[in-house]
Amino acid sequence: MLAVFKIALRALRRNVLRSFLTMLGIIVGIAAVIVGVSMGTGAKAEVDKRIASMGQNLLTVLSGNMNRGGVRGGFGMQPNLTVADYEAIRKEVLGVTAASPEARVGGAQIVAGNQNTPVQVSGVSAEYLTARSWPLRGGDNFSETDVRNANKVCLIGSTTAKSLFGENVDPVGQIIRIKSAPFTIVGWLEAKGSGSFGQDQDDVILVPYTSVMKRLSGDTKFRSVFVQAESPGSISDVQTQITELLRQRHQINEGKDDDFMVRTQQETSDFFNANNRIMTILIGFFAGISLVVGGIGIMNIMLVSVTERTREIGIRLAVGARGRDVLRQFLTEAVLLSVVGGALGIGTGFWLAPLLTKFAGFPTLISNASVVMAFTVSAIIGIVFGFFPALKAARLDPIDALRYE
Fold first, then answer.
1. CA 288 to CA 344: how far, in whole Å?
2. Which residues of 141-159 are buried (b: 16+ CB within 10 A; e: fewer)?
3. Cα 89 from chain centroid?
4. Are 298 and 381 in contact (CB under 8 A)?
5. Alpha-carbon span 24 to 341, nearest angstrom
6. 136-139 and 153-156 as β-strands: parallel, antiparallel, unpaired?
7. Given its phi and psi angles, is residue 136 left (phi above 0), alpha (psi -120 to 50 degrees) or beta?
């Protein structure tokens, strides 16, 4: 077998440029496979990272999906979750370790000294940090007493703290004004980075939800409620319990649509990864076309090689070589062309993927599975597209081959 490999390698080295041009389609196709799969894997990893940053075992109850005047509102757009709904979830649903509503103040201008900036202000409960797995960098969380009394205290995100007080300045104890109302900063949140929708989670002010309702917005209902299940295995059961509880509380009869949605982290991940899968499939489709073109190129050049080496084949058959020996020889050459092209394609993919991340900002992650798959595909292409030329060479008549000019 080693002798067959050496002969095949020597045959390809006779015309290096032709061999390289033959491999070009395989190189491009395999590189596209590596880059495409790495883009899909990287995008999924980034989505999963952002979803995980929201919290562990988290469920999100979204309000909305209501009809008003013939207009249907999407989930989370029309607030219809009440304080009583939130309290019922916290007290009656088994397997819940923490829960918090979210009441938002749109377009709030935050003022600190001579600095001011627009910031997302969210009204939450004292369990919000637990539900979101969000540690404090400094200070303390506000208490249930602060929530009950609608005290003017708040937690500040790292981006907001930097905007108002500068880099690495501890904001705990400072007073800021939200819609002209003074709030004391009691806690400084650790940085979380971008959220599932790409928003900056750290550009935020958290205050007791009662303070938002009574002092800032006047709202009486929530757009969402965050719920943390006690374990991954209990998420489905908690989701079912919340759905049944809210249908009962909202007096939704059987057969009627819910006016809320209970979404798990896995469902959110699947929602965002759907587009990534479509993109990966499209890239794989075009990469497949390139691989087929490359395979046809290998078949074409091997047919040319058989024609050019007809007398050589005749001599081998005349001195005792069998048809399967010739078949193995030319099939080895085809596979070698394809495998070397695949190796170069893998190297090209490893080179292009980081460049895509560096210059286009697209997350990529090359997996071992994609490399094995690419290498296997290149070998299969060599076998499939090299078999016919090799079979043609093996079936040559020795006498006719020796007479060939």
1. 17
2. bbeeebbeebbbbbbbbbb
3. 31
4. yes
5. 7
6. unpaired
7. beta
Rounded to a whole number of angstroms, the CA Rg of the chain reads: 33
Tokens of 330: 């030319």
As a whole number of angstroms, the distance between CA 51 and CA 73 comes to 25
User: CB–CB of 280/373 below 8 Å?
Assistant: no
Residues of the chain under the 70 pLDDT cut: 1-5, 7, 51-55, 65-77, 107, 194-198, 272, 399-405
Q: What CA–CA distance (Å, rounded) separates 131 from 90?
A: 12
Do 226 and 55 contact (CB within 8 A), yes or no? yes
Name residue, tokens 């209970």. Answer: 262
- Domain map of the chain by residue range? 2-49+274-403, 81-258
Q: CA-to-CA distance for 134 and 157, rounded, in angstroms?
A: 11
Q: How confident is the model at residue 129, as a pLDDT?
A: 92
Amino acid code (one letter) for 264? T
As beta bridge partners, residue 184 has: 153, 175
What's the token pair of residue 314?
A: 């005749």
Three-state DSSP at 362 gives coil
**What is the per-residue pLDDT for 77?**
58
Beta bridge partners of 293: none
Q: In angstroms, rounded to a whole number, what is the distance separating the alpha carbons of residues 13 and 358? A: 37
* Complete DSSP assignment for 179-232: TTEEEEEEEEEPP--B-TTS-BTTSEEEEEHHHIIIII----EESEEEEEESSG
Please give the Cα distance from 374 to 290 (Å, whole number). 13
